[in-house]
UniProtKB/TrEMBL annotation:
<dbReference type="InterPro" id="IPR036388">
    <property type="entry name" value="WH-like_DNA-bd_sf"/>
</dbReference>
<keyword id="KW-0805">Transcription regulation</keyword>
<dbReference type="Pfam" id="PF03466">
    <property type="entry name" value="LysR_substrate"/>
</dbReference>
<dbReference type="GO" id="GO:0003700">
    <property type="term" value="F:DNA-binding transcription factor activity"/>
</dbReference>
<feature type="domain" description="HTH lysR-type">
    <location>
        <begin position="18"/>
        <end position="75"/>
    </location>
</feature>
<comment type="similarity">
    <text>Belongs to the LysR transcriptional regulatory family.</text>
</comment>
<keyword id="KW-0804">Transcription</keyword>
<protein>
    <submittedName>
        <fullName>LysR family transcriptional regulator</fullName>
    </submittedName>
</protein>
<dbReference type="InterPro" id="IPR000847">
    <property type="entry name" value="LysR_HTH_N"/>
</dbReference>
<dbReference type="InterPro" id="IPR005119">
    <property type="entry name" value="LysR_subst-bd"/>
</dbReference>
<dbReference type="GO" id="GO:0005829">
    <property type="term" value="C:cytosol"/>
</dbReference>
<dbReference type="GO" id="GO:0003677">
    <property type="term" value="F:DNA binding"/>
</dbReference>
<dbReference type="InterPro" id="IPR037405">
    <property type="entry name" value="GbpR_PBP2"/>
</dbReference>
<dbReference type="InterPro" id="IPR036390">
    <property type="entry name" value="WH_DNA-bd_sf"/>
</dbReference>
<dbReference type="InterPro" id="IPR050950">
    <property type="entry name" value="HTH-type_LysR_regulators"/>
</dbReference>
<keyword id="KW-0238">DNA-binding</keyword>
<dbReference type="Pfam" id="PF00126">
    <property type="entry name" value="HTH_1"/>
</dbReference>
Amino acid sequence: MNHQTNHQTSAVALVNRLRFKHLALLVALDDTRNVHHAADTVNVAQPSASRMLGDIEEAFGFRLFDRNARGIEPTALGVVTLAYARRALADLTRFADDLDVKRRGGHGQLTVGAIMGAAPDLLAQAVAMLKTERPLLNVRILGETSDQVVQLLHRREVELALGRLTTPLQHNDFSFEPLARETLVLVVRAQHPLARREHITLAELMDWPWVAQPITSPARELFEGELARAGLGTPVNLTESASIFATLQLLESFDAVAMLPESVVRDHVRGRLLVVLPLEIGKSLPGFGVLTRSNEPLAEPAEHFVSLLRRFSQPFKVDEAIHDRASARALPPH
């Protein structure tokens, strides 16, 4: 009984000593791995940040970080504590934002991560319907590539994401519901010397400049796989960009080649700014879908948004089925 009383007393003491600023400092320390930079992030002097960290570690009764020449690294118990701090800070921030929206006569907030390939079609239709039904709901959309949106989901900066899992073990942390496929095309600007070619090979494109997604993205991994199967190396003249806007601007500025979702370049192709090259690529890229944190129920606005995504994904699934049947008919008999 005495042990239980002591445990309850220490827990109450910990709760009483932990403040919002402490959580913010822990998250900043985890992000920067540097006390000076973390202090700047939470707007306190470095001595104050060091003192706050000492107070936090004293309250917990163990070290959260090991100090080394390069900065600081979380201890094993520190990793667990930092995950809690990030979760608590995100929940508190979301609560404060939601309360502020309600105070101003709004109806809550929804923050979504989304890959660029989902944005022009599925995401746009679902958001448009959501805002028609709930005009005062504050909607935020973050991210552009699957590795970005998975990281946003992991850091609790978004409530759900439209994307795909990027590593084999992520299914332990996230639930995935497939929604649609993402058709990829190779594009160049209309003035490119290759723009009027009727036939082209991947090997012929290797001498041209390329704009590609970062190596951590599934689309880039697929691109490197296609090169490997063709016995080709990564293009020497390559610019990496995770931004769809920057990629499109670069494509229109010089004679580069890029592999992008058809839905993203559709309007640029119709406007004759870009041309799709006659070379099929990216058939093995897995479909994208809704990513959520495992065993964590969604808030009502997020749940409703997922139902809209499911509804608007149906036409894409019908299109895929028709395309698959047509492809099957085109195959020679065994």
